[in-house]
Each structure stands twice: as C-alpha cells, then as structure tokens.
Write a structure and sequence with these properties.
The protein has 410 residues and is mainly α.
C-alpha cells in the first residue's frame, strides 16, 4: 500500500519542481497577470493539479488507511486512477502550451475520469467503514467538492465548444474556482489536521466539538459561495460566504490551540509549528478581507485583488500547509518502508535523522518571507516587489523540496 502514496508524492514533487523551474526561467513575469490565457492556465493547472492535488490524493490514500485501520476499497482501481489522472494532467498541460484544443479536450476527459475514480474509491471506502467523525466527514465533503470541480470544469469546456449556454460560462467559472479551492483543499487540510496535529503533538483528551463547528461553517461558506456565483446572486451573498469562512477559520484556530494545550510533546517539529503559524495568518487575512469588502464591495470584482487573494490562499496557506506536512509525512513513509522491517537491529537511523529540523525551518522561513514580499507587491501594485518575491519564492521552494526529495536517498 505504501507504494501508492509514494507514486503520488514523487509525481507531485516533480510537478512542484517543474512549476518553479518554469517560473524562474520566465522571471516570474506571469504571476501578476490574470490566469486566463495559455500561460496562466498552464501554470495554474500545473501547481493545482500537478502538485497540490497530486500530493493531496496520495495523502488521502495513506491517511485513510491510518484513520480507518482498513485498506482502500480497491488498490487496483487506485492505480488506474493514478494512470488516468497523471496522463490526463500531462496531456492537458501540453495542450495549453501548444494551444491545441483537441489535446486539451481529450486529456481533460482522461483527467476527469481519474478524478471520478478517486472520488468513488474514497467515498465507497468511507461508506463501508461507517466511522463518521469530523475527519472522515471532512474528507468525504472535500472529495465530493473535488468531483464537482471536475464536472463543472468539463461543463465549461462543453459550453466553450458548443456555445450552448450563453451567460452561464462566467458563473460556472466562479463556482468551479470556489469549489476547487475552498471546498477541496480547505476541507481536506482542516479535516486531516484533526488527525495529524494530535499525532505529532502526542495530544489526548482534547474536546472535539469545535472540529464539527468548523466543518459546518466551512461547508456553509463553500455552498453559499458556489451558489452565489452559479445563480448570479449579489454582493451580500458572497460577503456572507466569506463571513462563514472567517467564522470557520476562527473556530479552527481555537480548536488547534485546544489540541496544543493538551499536548504531551513540547516540540512537534519545525514544519508543524510553521503550519500553525500559517493557519493563524490566513485567519487574519480573511478577517481583513471581510472588513475591507464590507466598505469596498467593488473589491469582489477587481481582477488584481482577486489574483492577490488567490495567491495568498493557495500559495500562502494550501500549498504552504502541504509543504509543512511533507516534512513529517515523507520521513515517516520512507522510514517505515525501508527500515520498518529492521527495527531493533544496530545502525538503523531514527526517523528524525532523515530530515533535519534546521533545514526545514530555514527553507520554510525563506518561503514565508518571499511570499510576504510577493503578496505585498500584488496588493499594492508594485511589480518590482512582485518580481523579487516571486523569484525568492521559487528559489527557496526548490531548495526546500530538494531537502524533502533527499530523504529518499537515506
């Protein structure tokens, strides 16, 4: 079973490396541009599908086994999913580079098939296990939103080709982005935190009520936001969706503090400490956005501010959280695979020896500082600062992911 998460992690690391290499070669000049256009589509799909979603799928396969103490419904189906999704994403990216509509359409279908196979395999596994709690419910909702994101993306593609539903394309685009970013990544990260944080802090007997509150509020924000785009509701519907998400983030941060309060391990590792800082930072940003948009409703329609907000959420929280958790997941998986059968024999390294905490801390500090420069450049319309932040982000990211990849050589 361990080989399956390794496949996704190795492919995700390759996608992450390719994204930052292409960003460096282009001197990060695409970052401040709207995502619509071949270059923007290529980069966004590479980082979201080729990196973040690829890693997230591998994490689901691994953690669902830990959470349920049972195997996934069909491991063979999971390999078919990997093949379809990986080939689909590669073909889709090639289609964006070449501007070949037929390639884009064909491989988008293949990627969607892989995505739906994943959704079926995970949902059916959870359904059979009948162990419903905040973790499994969050995972099920996240996977459901991922499937809806894929289907809405396919709907947009059909609409583009057939021009059948004029006026609907823009609304579907908003719902597609909202479901994929807030629904899939948001609920998966928060849900898995309820399992992973207590593991790394060795925390027990903490109250779980706020994890359900977070789950309910986050779902309310996702559904309200998606509906507001799909049915073209006005400003207050979108603002209310943002309000639900702010309340969810506040409840989530209080719950994380409760877990930390009940810890039996003082230092869980630099990656986990940085993940907590990232959760506090995204809550502060969301509160600021809620207040700002209450006074300046037109911000919802500003392409520049929406681009900046997208970078802050996806780059500063979703992707950053994945990087933080990889510092624990990769050494754990590799140590279990390579050294697990040899436990007790002399010369076996400890899990902590596979990845030094100082390197993790240095890498994440560099990424966080570069992202702050990037965000400031985007928010205040300063191209030079955006350029410096973007280049620093890619350089530190490549250094950090190299540290993670080197674990496989130890």
């Amino acid at each position: 079973m361990l080989r399956l998460p390794f496949l996704f992690i190795a492919t995700g690391i390759t996608g992450f490396t390719l994204f930052h290499l292409t960003s460096l070669l282009s001197l990060a000049d695409w970052i401040g541009d709207p995502v619509r256009g071949p270059t923007g589509w290529f980069n966004i799909h590479l980082i979201i599908l080729g990196w973040a979603t690829m890693i997230a799928m591998g994490a689901v396969y691994q953690l669902i086994h830990v959470i349920l103490q049972s195997k996934i419904f069909s491991e063979r189906l999971a390999y078919v999913h990997y093949g379809c999704f990986t080939a689909g994403v590669c073909g889709l990216l090639y289609g964006f580079i070449k501007g070949e509509v037929a390639w884009i359409a064909g491989f988008a279908v293949l990627a969607l098939i892989g995505l739906l196979l994943f959704a079926f395999n995970v949902i059916y596994t959870l359904w059979r296990a009948e162990q419903w709690n905040a973790i499994t419910l969050s995972t099920a909702c996240a996977v459901l939103y991922l499937a809806l994101t894929g289907l809405s993306g396919m709907g947009m593609g059909l609409n583009f080709a057939l021009n059948a539903w004029s006026g609907l394309h823009e609304r579907m685009f908003g719902a597609h982005i909202w479901l994929g970013t807030l629904g899939w990544f948001g609920l998966l990260i928060t849900g898995f935190s309820y399992k992973m944080l207590p593991m790394f802090y060795l925390a027990h007997s903490f109250p779980a009520r706020l994890s359900y509150v977070t789950l309910g509020l986050w779902n309310a924000g996702v559904l309200m936001g998606a509906a507001s785009f799909l049915f073209d509701w006005g400003f207050w519907a979108k603002w209310t969706a943002l309000l639900f998400l702010v309340l969810a983030l506040l409840a989530y941060n209080v719950h994380l503090a409760q877990i930390r309060k009940h810890r039996h391990k003082r230092h869980p590792g630099a990656g986990i400490v940085w993940s907590l800082n990232s959760c506090r930072a995204i809550a502060l940003f969301a509160i600021s956005a809620l207040i700002y948009t209450a006074f300046y409703p037109q911000a919802f329609g500003s392409a520049e501010l929406v681009t900046a907000a997208g970078w802050i959420y996806l780059g500063g929280w979703a992707s950053f959280m994945i990087l933080c958790y990889l510092s624990k997941i990769v050494p754990f998986l590799w140590w279990t695979q390579k050294y697990g059968p040899q436990v007790g024999k002399p010369g076996i390294p400890t899990m902590a020896a596979l990845l030094g905490d100082n390197g993790v801390n240095l890498g994440l500090t560099g990424i966080a500082f570069s992202l702050l420069l990037l965000f400031a450049g985007l928010l205040f319309g300063l191209p030079f600062l955006t350029l410096v932040g973007g280049l620093g982000f890619s350089l530190f990211s490549l250094g950090y992911i190299s540290l993670i990849a080197l674990v496989f050589t130890k």
